[in-house]
Write a structure and sequence with these properties.
ornithine cyclodeaminase, domain 1, Rossmann fold, 2 domains, 8-stranded mixed beta sheet
Length: 341
């Protein structure tokens, strides 16, 4: 028997609680640093080369195991189809998460992973911001106004309530309008501005977060102010000079960023323009206190997060436990009686 949880069930089980998600990420990166996770590389199913993902899409398989008091194995199967919203009226991303019992290795839960995937991506940024972002940051620039932008904003406001202005730029200006209309109601203390270019969004911003499927750089070094916190949460979104001019470069996981090969640091590494030694720290090193985060107000800090399946699994396990406690979801069976042993 396994428990099936719809997206509505996931929401009932605190799937939209960003503070809890950020705490999940804190625990996850502690475990990851201490070797209590297993993180196989992402496997991407694509219809073409790496650049085709921004046009045709892809599906990623992201298995993993989280040890410690979490003790769960599983996988996220997540698709990205960039033209779904405009062509089909469907979300760009859809995801399914399967949790397995580490003892029997049988599935114990199958749930919607679309919401969890978006939440954990935002939560990783929120966790990083706690260590790397100025405490008085007031202007946030969001490049890309899709689903991920919503959870990035949730996370930033959770850890930096000082943010009072949010500039939003998307190539599809109607998406910027829709984003602002939704979030204005959620954050009445924030001035939302529709930027007509990436440059006008980024200039003088304290925090810059890119969440796009772009395979060509968007953000230029000359736009970035002293003391800015830059987040590469999508693809190849920053020109190399941005990275060169940063005082610190931090990644969620060096091996995973390089393996996936789509973000700015990974592209630079493949071209011989960035080396492992230039990476100041992985996020787990900040969480355990091995390395310091921001130490000066004028530091430019670059954070790249490609994402790992274990991030999804730790949230999914919390959701599953809450579902069991509150008798939420539908129990399903793979068989009445196994045909073979």
């Amino acid at each position: 028997m396994f428990l099936y949880l719809s997206q509505e069930d996931v929401i009932k089980c605190d799937g939209l609680d960003m503070k809890m998600a950020i705490d999940d990420m804190r625990r996850l990166f502690l475990l990851h640093y201490n070797g209590a996770t297993i993180v196989p590389h992402k496997l991407s199913l694509r219809w073409g080369d790496l650049k085709s993902e921004s046009r045709i899409g892809r599906i990623n398989a992201m298995p993993g195991y989280v040890g410690g008091d979490v003790n769960v194995a599983g996988i996220k199967w997540v698709s990205s189809k960039p033209d779904n919203p405009l062509k089909r009226g469907l979300p760009r991303a859809s995801a399914l998460i399967i949790l397995n019992d580490p003892e029997t290795l049988f599935p114990v839960a199958v749930m919607d992973g679309t919401l969890i995937s978006a939440m954990r991506t935002g939560a990783v940024t929120g966790l990083a911001a706690m260590y790397l972002c100025r405490e008085d940051a007031s202007i946030l620039a969001l490049i890309g106004a899709g689903v991920q932008a919503h959870t990035q904003l949730m996370a930033v406001k959770s850890v930096r309530p000082s943010v009072r202005e949010v500039r939003v730029f998307d190539l599809n200006l109607a998406r910027s309008d829709a984003f602002i209309e939704t979030e204005r109601n959620n954050y009445p203390d924030v001035l939302f501005v529709k930027a007509l270019s990436a440059e006008t969004a980024v200039r003088d911003a304290d925090i810059v977060i890119t969440v796009t499927t772009s395979m060509e750089p968007i953000v230029k070094a000359s736009w970035v102010k002293e003391g800015a916190f830059l987040v590469n949460a999508g693809n190849y979104e920053y020109e190399p000079d941005v990275v060169y001019e940063c005082d610190k470069v931090i990644l969620d996981d060096w091996d995973e960023v390089v393996h996936r090969g789509i973000q700015t640091v990974a592209v630079m590494f493949k071209e011989g323009a960035f080396h492992r030694e230039r990476c100041y720290a992985e996020l787990g090193e900040l969480v355990v206190g091995e390395k310091k985060g921001r130490v000066a107000e004028n530091e430019k800090i670059f954070f790249g997060a490609v994402g790992m399946g274990v991030e999804d699994l730790i949230i999914a396990k919390r959701v599953f436990d809450k579902a069991l406690e509150n008798k939420i979801g539908v129990w399903l069976s793979l068989w009445d009686k196994p045909y073979w042993f």
